[in-house]
Amino acid sequence: MTEAILLVGGRGTRLRPLTVHTPKPMVPAAGVPFLTHQLARARAAGVDHIVLATSYLAEVFEPHFGDGSALGLHLEYVTEEEPLGTGGAIRNAASHLRSGPEDPVLVFNGDILTGLDIRRLVTTHGTTGADVSLHLTQVTDPRAYGLVPTDATGRVLAFLEKPQTPEEIVTDQINAGAYVFRRSVIDTIPAGRPVSVERETFPDLLAAGAHLQGMVDSTYWLDLGTPAAFVRGSADLVLGRAPSPAVPGRCGDRLVLPTARVAGDAKLTGGTVVGEGAFVGEGARVYGSTVLAGAVVEPGAVITDSLIGARARIGERSVLTGAVIGDGAVVGADNELRTGVRVWCDARIPTGALRFSSDQ
């Protein structure tokens, strides 16, 4: 048996307004809550017991997933009364583990979409005798990340802060947010206070002489922390670029859930998702976007790389590019919303109120 802890307590501040009423792991991606993809991939890799470390809107998770039996899992839920950080959350959830002191325990961040070979990470952990093993990925521009250099055998040498100069970029390897801990190592994390596993636990272990092993797996990897990344991740799941056994349909250019309605001449491409009960009207064009449950896209609207919240309405001929529309919001006809615009939940934008061009 392999156990796992899934860190799902973050507030998802950068994703607002999507996370005003919904915790980030429960925002739908490719037709199901994003967390479903993580759970399904863990189960496919042989994990059968997962402890969900919850905090923000913790009451949402258990009513949806229950005991996990529908996914072939045994799920348990642990709620932090006060945010404990990544390390504190791992320590707080550990009381629900059944593993022995030397057994491996998987830990996943709840906002990473990845094609990581989970079995390979566990195997690497066992064969190297590591105290902690980390999934590392290589990025083209590492300036936005902390760096994790390793030696020729993959052993971690240091944890470096975000590089400020070109000379400080000593590797393109970064922490990709999935770990295997020796069970006894988790018990060394201080209990009852906030702890960052990235900034405190890992550097302290390294300084104490512990064996931290890095495994580079350069398959699909995306941090879904921003609206643009979340929309892209959902589209990549639909297109089959990001692997998941939980996509509710065949991979392709679009995913239309069973109770959604799409006009015959509407065009959906680029991994677009149309959620349950949603409607896309005549002549509308939707590319690489997510239209959540009950939303309405009126005739002639053009939507690109955007997320339309549940029960929101986009008026006729409105053009959205890289926009995020909160649940229940209404964008009137003939508006133009460009990249970075966020319309809050239940807000109302009158007809023709927003334009970024002089076109009539």
UniProtKB/TrEMBL annotation:
Superkingdom in the source lineage: Bacteria
Pfam families: GMPPB_C, NTP_transferase
Boundaries of every Nucleotidyl transferase domain copy: 4-236
Enzyme Commission designation: 2.7.7.71
Molecular function in Gene Ontology: nucleotidyltransferase activity
Keywords for this protein: Nucleotidyltransferase, Transferase
Mannose-1-phosphate guanyltransferase C-terminal domain: residues covered: 252-332
Keyword Nucleotidyltransferase among UniProt keywords: yes
PANTHER family in the cross-refs: SUGAR-1-PHOSPHATE GUANYL TRANSFERASE
Family as reported in the entry's similarity comment: Belongs to the transferase hexapeptide repeat family.
Name recorded for this polypeptide: D-glycero-alpha-D-manno-heptose 1-phosphate guanylyltransferase
Organism of derivation: Streptomyces scabiei
Organism lineage: Bacteria, Bacillati, Actinomycetota, Actinomycetes, Kitasatosporales
Gene that specifies this protein: hddC_1
